[in-house]
Amino acid sequence: MCATMSKKKKSEKLEVSGVADIDSARGISGVESARDWFRARNIEEIECLVPDQGGVARGKIMPVSKFLNAPVMNLPLSIFYQCITGEYPAYDGLVDAVEADTDMFMQPDWSTLTSVPWAMDPTAQVIHDAVTRDGRPVEQAPRQVLRRIRELYRKKGWQPVVAPEIEFYLVEPNTDADYPLKPPIGRSGRPEIGRQGYSISAVNEFDALFEDIYKYSEQQGLEIDTLIHEDGAAQMEINLRHGDPLELADQVFLFKRTIREASLQHKIYATFMAKPMTGEPGSALHIHQSIVDADNGENIFSDPETGGPTSLFFSFLAGQQKYLPAIMCMLAPYVNSYRRLTRDSMAPINVQWGYDNRTAGLRVPPSGPAARRVENRVPSSDANPYLATAAVLAAGYLGMTEELEATAPIESDAKNRDFELPRGLLEAVAEMEECEPIKQVMGSSFVSAYAAIKKQEYETFMKVISPWEREHLLLNV
């Protein structure tokens, strides 16, 4: 990931208008260009998307003619209180029950307009933002949380740059939740048995699927940097090009849809569960981060004269070290997420940092001064990309503004050190609720809503009896 932003690319985006809008695979300048964009593609239907707290696409599907006549749709505030199970927490102390069912106005972000290439008929999709009746952003909305953090950086004259790496598993279709997941059958007619990290032939087993993923991505203007086979059986990783945090979070949101939909067409499930299979590695959402000067695009982590690391670089690291426990429930948002974070695995259990040390929670990859960055290896692939990105940037921001000092880099194997991160969801939620600086920068209304959702999800989980309990307790206690 290069930390310097391309000035040419930025200027090209600003110049998008008129004919250029019609040719754009993703994003137009405004509603005035939408009609021509739809007409050029014969699109008659549009999916109006809103990412909720779990990163699930909520919204409405409507005819383009209706959408153009009234491009602002309504949805109830309650969508930002909905659990991954479809349930809702008690609204007591959070929001009035009447207000929860009161409509918000959902405004399309035209920069996200793109096609739905897997749809049977020509269809478009656009991500929306939530505003109140008087035009204020809805603070509980994940996109707004990330915007809020980005604005804190901008007020300091800084521009965050991120590059996500998304791991996921391909598995056989599984329609009975009582049965464990299994690797799918590849083109050879056999499932993958051993671990095939970085194997080209193991990726080639699913060439047809990945051709569709690349094709669909290109049609949506999504930029894949690299594709690799990870350590687990049929575990893959896709890396995205670096850029603006909100734009990259949008891309991860759309990529997850794309990968799932393409996989279904090949009678395969793609899962972003943090730990989908016993005995296999977990899946991560690693986030590379650097900060550039908003005026000249230079990496503020590197001294312009010596090329060495700056005090801001070490303070950014220190902020992530200090606040990782408090943001953990946004990086590992489900009970399953903590099954990935175990001792003696490649998933970190610590807040240590090191130079090219993948056993540390925070890794500084080898690079030149312009690309100096921090890779946060804690988030799991089940994380909402908007919230995970906002959380790690919030921690780094606090580190720089509080002028914190990082520990010395760790050079040894950190896999078997003591746990320095929460071991479970309720512990992580408590850390967030007790951290005033995180509540202040991310918004107290969001933190309250998110904590209530996570507690409700945990209560629902506790109603389920696991196979382990039946195996070891049924006849032994």
From TrEMBL:
UniProt feature coiled coil, ranges: none
Q: Which InterPro entries does the UniProt entry name for this protein?
A: Gln_synt_N_sf (IPR036651), Gln_synth/guanido_kin_cat_dom (IPR014746), Gln_synth_cat_dom (IPR008146), Gln_synth_gly_rich_site (IPR027303)
**Cofactor requirements of the protein:** Mg(2+)
Tagged with keyword Magnesium: yes
Pfam family name, one: Gln-synt_C
The domain of life is Bacteria
Boundaries of every GS catalytic domain copy = 142-477
Sorted alphabetically, the keyword list is: Ligase, Magnesium
Please state which protein family the record places this protein in. Answer: Belongs to the glutamine synthetase family.
Q: From the Swiss-Prot or TrEMBL record, give the protein name.
A: Glutamine synthetase
State the encoding gene: glnA2
